[in-house]
Each structure stands twice: as structure tokens, then as C-alpha cells.
Amino acid sequence: MHLFAMRGAWGPISGWFYETVIGRRVGPLYDRFVAEALPELPDGSTIIDVGCGEGQVSSRIAAWLPACQVIGLDLSPAMIERASARTPPRDNLRFVQGDALALPLQDDSVDVAVSVASIKHWPDRLRGVRELLRVIRPGGTICVLEADRDCTHAAARRFTEHWLHVLPFDRDLGAVWFRRVVAGQALNLDELVGVLTRAGVADLQAERQADLPFIAARARKAAPRELSGEATV
Fold first, then answer.
1. Cα–Cα distance between 47 and 62 in angstroms, integer?
2. Residue 232 in 3-state DSSP?
3. pLDDT confidence of residue 232
4. Looking at the domain assignment, is residue 158 inside a domain?
């Protein structure tokens, strides 16, 4: 992957660019996602952050839920190395290299699967979502945040206000790049809903972010009795 093609694994240059220009200034956005998206979980629950990059979201989840286990997974060995190096050690957090389309986890082994700005990089999005559902326990949760292909220039411009080392007169240029390249290769809300629906999620809730160029979704993995048409209690 490079700065003009979103598919595939992050390399050292794209990873450096993201962390230097964007990642260091969007911590409050990650905090907002973690606080709004994650349900209250019992102690001992397991969360996987698929496409964790340099671990910005994984580390926040581990701090937010210290009694839960967090796995940060990324296709890129370089990103796993950077995540491990930049994140203070925590007993409830580990980083592993792996493919979102073939997660190295057993069926029904995690309680929550999180994907933040990762789905657009997957060559087969439906297969990836089905993998998330495979590893989630029945009744578990999937949380997605992704760039919105239908975002407005104004929303993208508000996002560039958070970027570092970008001069005020360059923020419109940054917004154009984000809309045409990043969001342009992502999904719109209908597409995200369609992928999640075809994958077989239950209780799907999805929305466009009112103030930022992102879409968010949260859903549940149906229990076997629901899939067979039996009533739940």
C-alpha cells in the first residue's frame, strides 16, 4: 500500500506518514470511538482490533478495559513492530501479525471485534467481515469505523484541522486528498450496511458521523437458535 492506493498492508513510509501527520493528533477521535462503540464487558472478555496499525486504538481499549484482554492484529510486520515499540507494555495487550481474511484465531474465541479504518484495505471485504463473525462468540459485538466515501469537503476539512505539520492554507489540499484517495477507496454507508448484512450480522446499527468524514456501525453475532429461526428468551 502507498499514499495513493489503499489496498494491502501498510509499509514503513505510509506508516510513518500516518503517525507523523495524522496519528499523533487524532487521539481524541480514538477516545470518542472507544467510549461510544464498546459495550460494557464483563471481566475476562477478549477484544480483537483488526488492522490495528501502530496500536493507537488497541492501547486505548486496553487502558479503558483493564480487566479485559486485547489483541491488536495487523497484516504488516512493520506495523506490528512499531505498535510493540511505541506502546507501553500492558499485561492485557498483545500484538500479533495476521491476515484479516484468515484470522489466526479459533471460532467463537473473542467477545468483540473492532475495525477502525481498516476495511478499505481488505481485498475481499465480505470475507473479512465473515472472518470477524467467525471468531466472535454468539451474542458478541462487531464495531466498525471507516472513512465515508460520500463525505463532504467540509467534513474532510474539519478532519484535517487535527493534522500535524499541515499549514492552514494546505488543509483544503489535505481534505481533497482525503476525499479522493482515502475515502474515495473506502465505502459509503449503504455499502457498509450491505457488506455487514450479507455477512449475516444481527441488530445492525449504522450511521454517518455528523461532524467528521466517517461512517460507523455496530452489530451482533446471532446465536445459533436465532439463525435457525427459534425464538430467543
1. 9
2. coil
3. 36
4. yes
